[in-house]
């Protein structure tokens, strides 16, 4: 089977983007495509399907490089939006897309920057899911849970952005213990579907630095939902303002979140790197 694809990236978070093939791609084929030495290589593969909701432009599915399917990807959503606009600019710059994580509102600006509505951050542990301590109140406890990892007790935030996120605040993101704690937290038994793990350094109320260990991928140059999750946790702790610059290894994103009950918006660049075809 041959597929035609685009290689796209948003802040260094890279994607294989293709229209749904006639045959289903199993996890072994996806892993082969994701191998950076013998395949195409990507953080996530984005498969575009015909809309399931007539009010949306597309239904997209997201697969990690390990072949697992996930609910949402912020930078991936921005790349899909950029592609849809380039294919049919006459349909406008403001439109809806659909995914397992729900409907996403997208906007493409005149300067090429792409914004996506990532929904309302959900601090209920059941949304991740997260087996939090019995009796924990998600309205008060979620920003500062205790989690024991490899014999060390850590303070974490836990929030769903349509996919699960843990956020740890660190003094220096460059020295963050990502390699030590990222894999252990990702597969911690209190997260039955695994979780993404962000390490956040607060520079000022309007500026953070962030590294993310992504579920099923490892550390990536950027993570859009991770950026939103970090800002949401920081806002809930009273440490951040409602518009925050997020510096990631691959570049800078902007996250806007007005607070409880409001929707978080992620803004940044999304570009096509190359196109190609591959037999699998």
Describe the model.
The longest helix has 14 residues, at 74-87. A hairpin with a 4-residue loop joins β4 and β5 (69-70). It contains 4 helices and 18 strands. It has helices spanning 27-34, 74-87, 178-186, 224-236; strands at 2-10, 13-19, 44-49, 59-64, 69-70, 94-99, 102-108, 114-117, 145-149, 152-160, 164-169, 196-204, 207-214, 218-220, 243-248, 251-256, 265-268, 271-279. The termini are close together. It folds into 2 domains: 2-119 and 269-279, Diaminopimelate Epimerase, Chain A, domain 1; 125-261, Diaminopimelate Epimerase, Chain A, domain 1 (Roll), CATH 3.10.310.10. It is an alpha+beta fold and 280 residues long. It has an 18-stranded mixed sheet that branches. 16% of the residues lie in helices and 40% in strands.
Helical proportion, percent range? 10-25%
Order of helix and strand elements from N to C terminus: EEHEEEHEEEEEEHEEEHEEEE
Radius of gyration, CA atoms, in whole angstroms: 18 Å
List low-confidence stretches: none
Can you count the helices? 4
Describe the main β-sheet briefly. 18 strands, mixed
Which structural class matches the secondary elements? alpha+beta
Number of domains: 2
Question: What is the C-level CATH assignment of the largest domain?
Answer: Alpha Beta
The first-to-last residue Cα distance is 5 Å
Query: What is the assigned CATH homologous superfamily of the largest domain?
Result: Diaminopimelate Epimerase, Chain A, domain 1
pLDDT average, as an integer? 93
Q: Judging from the principal axes of the Cα atoms, what is the shape? A: globular
Overall number of strands: 18
């Amino acid at each position: 089977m041959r597929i035609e694809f685009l290689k796209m990236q948003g802040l260094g978070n890279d994607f294989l983007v293709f229209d749904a093939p006639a045959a289903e791609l199993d996890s072994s084929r996806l892993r082969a495509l994701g191998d950076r030495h013998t395949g195409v290589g990507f953080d996530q593969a984005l498969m575009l399907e015909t809309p399931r909701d007539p009010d949306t432009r597309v239904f997209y599915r997201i697969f990690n490089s390990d072949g697992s399917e996930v609910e949402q990807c912020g930078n991936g959503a921005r790349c899909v939006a950029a592609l849809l606009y380039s294919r049919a600019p006459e349909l406008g710059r403001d439109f809806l897309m659909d995914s397992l994580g729900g409907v996403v509102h997208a906007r493409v600006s005149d300067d090429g920057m792409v914004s996506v509505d990532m929904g309302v951050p959900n601090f209920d542990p059941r949304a991740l899911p997260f087996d939090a301590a019995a009796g924990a109140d998600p309205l008060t406890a979620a920003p500062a849970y205790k989690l024991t990892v490899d014999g060390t007790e850590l303070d974490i935030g836990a929030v769903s952005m349509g996919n699960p996120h843990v956020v740890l605040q660190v003094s220096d993101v460059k020295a963050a213990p990502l390699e030590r704690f990222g894999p252990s937290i990702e597969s911690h038994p209190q997260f039955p579907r695994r979780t993404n793990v962000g390490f956040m350094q607060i520079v000022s109320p309007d500026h953070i630095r962030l590294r993310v260990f992504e579920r099923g991928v490892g550390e990536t140059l950027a993570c859009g939902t991770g950026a939103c999750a970090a800002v949401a946790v920081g806002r809930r702790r009273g440490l951040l303002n409602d518009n925050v610059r997020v510096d990631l290894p691959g570049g800078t994103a902007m996250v806007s979140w007005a607070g409880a009950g409001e929707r978080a918006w992620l803004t940044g660049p999304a570009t096509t790197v190359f196109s190609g075809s591959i037999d699998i």
